[in-house]
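Design job #97: recover the sequence.
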């Protein structure tokens, strides 16, 4: 699993959540669009969790590349920027799963767990 998140505290919380409750493993975490893109282009991630605001670049660039090079990956947006315009922009980039960090944080665990039980879609 690739985690793309600018906040060290949120990164740590996501890692703990998915590894203890979701039965998954975060193999790489970054706060940089360019590093995330490099990872997507060189490693076979099956789950990608992306925040939209990053230290370097944005999550939109990561989502664009993920759609191209990892179309079968479970791609999840986990962000505080949840306006309808942002949701539509993410949907246009192929995102089916969009979670508001402030109120839906733990929803990613159920989604990842259901994907693991069902297998790739």
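Job complete. Output follows.
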């Amino acid at each position: 699993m690739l985690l793309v998140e600018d906040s060290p505290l949120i990164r740590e919380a996501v890692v703990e959540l998915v590894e203890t409750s979701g039965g998954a493993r975060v193999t790489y975490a970054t706060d940089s669009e360019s590093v995330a893109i490099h990872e997507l282009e060189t490693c076979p991630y099956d789950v990608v969790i992306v925040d939209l605001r990053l230290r370097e670049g944005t999550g939109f660039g990561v989502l664009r590349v993920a759609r191209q090079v990892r179309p079968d990956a479970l791609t999840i947006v986990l962000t505080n920027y949840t306006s309808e315009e942002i949701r539509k922009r993410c949907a246009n980039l192929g995102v089916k799963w969009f979670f508001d960090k402030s109120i839906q944080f733990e929803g990613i665990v159920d989604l990842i767990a259901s994907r693991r039980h069902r297998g790739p879609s």
